[in-house]
Amino acid sequence: MRPTRFHSLLLVGSFLLVPMMGMTVSCAEGQETKAEAVDVQLPARPDALMQAETKIRAGQAREAETELRGWLAAQPDSPYVPEAHYLLGQARFVQEDYAGAKFFHDKVLDQKKVDRNLKALALFGRAECNYHMSSYHKASRQYHWLETFYRDVRAVPHDELLFKLGMATRKAGFEETANYWFNKTVELYATSPWGQRAREMNTKLNGSKDGNPTWYALEVGKYDDEAKALADAEALRKKGYADVKVEEVKSVNNYYRLTVGRFFNRNEALRAQEDADMAGLDTSIHPGLLSTSR
Questions:
Q1: pLDDT digits (tens, 9 = 90+) for 20-47
Q2: Do 194 and 184 contact (CB within 8 A), yes or no?
Q3: Angle of helix 158-171 relative to helix 136-149, nearest 10 degrees?
Q4: Fold type of domain 215-288
Q5: Alpha carbon distance 104, 99 (integer Å)
Q6: What architecture (CATH level 2) is domain 15-130?
Q7: Predicted local confidence at residue 213, as pLDDT
Q8: CB 92, CB 101: distance < 8 Å
Q9: Rounded CA gap, 143 and 165, in Å?
Q10: How far is residue 100 from each of residues 94, 105, 107, measured CA to CA in Å?
Q11: How far is CA 265 from CA 203, 206, 214, 276, in A?
């Protein structure tokens, strides 16, 4: 996924809350600290930062970077240094230097007193960098942290965040978890472009595009007698088995298939099969395809 838009920090007036009460994150993974709310009156936002943001939006990231570096050299003690670092991270990201972008986003997160909006955007930027560097496990944790603790920050594009969380968990190998986040995106942002993309990516909502299985069940048996299949299905339900189904399979000799469970990746099905075997239920894994929802 290539960068699609520029995520900016919107400053209202010259007052910032630096930061609000709550959890903050340092550059080191997993470190958490408490910070107090401090009201700080800042000077007007420098023209250099506004011009750099405009240039990044216009696709002139290299020129913006040159100007930002010059401004930082001239104003090393400005309270707007963290925002300049964030903009440098955005400029490097647009140029597809994801390691360089992460470096500048980390510099923002290293600061003890940073506006909560800016911190949230830097966290999102860092997760984006890790995603594009194929560090999917790390990116999924960082997206999830942001979704959990910065849900109230409007500067973060939460529809995109939930979609990216689904993509990161899918690429990390957790298909069922990915579908959960795609489903959340659809539930909360159905009419947004990210909600539409989430619907397309969710294998619970769409059938396979390549003929590969999109779900698995545990097949208990095949029956010529429908009544017997239904009776065995009811017995399994009483024992606590979920998603017990009897399906008529039309072939040369029609029969009835009894299955339990529905799993959206084979590993989950294998673990369920082991549990069933330990409970004395002999099963085999049955792959299937979902019909496409429109």
A1: 333 333 334 434 333 343 445 668 899 9
A2: no
A3: 150
A4: Alpha-Beta Plaits (3.30.70)
A5: 9
A6: Alpha Horseshoe (1.25)
A7: 57
A8: yes
A9: 6
A10: 11, 9, 11
A11: 10, 15, 8, 17
Domain spans, the chain: 15-130, 215-288
Structure tokens at 189: 């942002």
Distance separating alpha carbons of residues 201 and 163, to the nearest angstrom: 9
The neighbouring-strand residues paired with 115 are: none
- Residue 198: alpha-carbon gap to chain centroid: 11
Classify the phi-psi angles of 240: left when phi > 0, otherwise alpha if psi is within -120 to 50, otherwise beta. left
Q: CA-CA distances (angstroms) from residue 206 to 70, 106, 163, 269?
A: 51, 38, 16, 20
Q: In angstroms, what CA-CA distances link 188 with 153, 183, 203, 242?
A: 16, 9, 18, 28
The pLDDT of residue 208 is 52
pTM: 0.61
Please identify every stretch of the chain with a pLDDT value under 50, giving residue numbers as ranges.
Answer: 1-5, 9-39, 209, 211, 289-294
DSSP per-residue letters across the chain: ----S-------TTEEESS-SEEEE-SSTT-EEEE---EEEPPPPPHHHHHHHHHHHTT-HHHHHHHHHHHHHH-TT-TTHHHHHHHHHHHHHHTT-HHHHHHHHHHHHH-SS--HHHHHHHHHHHHHHHHHTT-HHHHHHHHHHHHHH-TT-TTS-HHHHHHHHHHHHHHTT-HHHHHHHHHHHHHH-TTSHHHHHHHHH-TTTS--SSS--SEEEEEEEEES-HHHHHHHHHHHHHTT-SS-EEEEE-SSS-EEEEEEEEESSHHHHHHHHHHHHHTT---EEEEE-PPPP-
- CA-to-CA distance for 147 and 133, rounded, in angstroms? 21
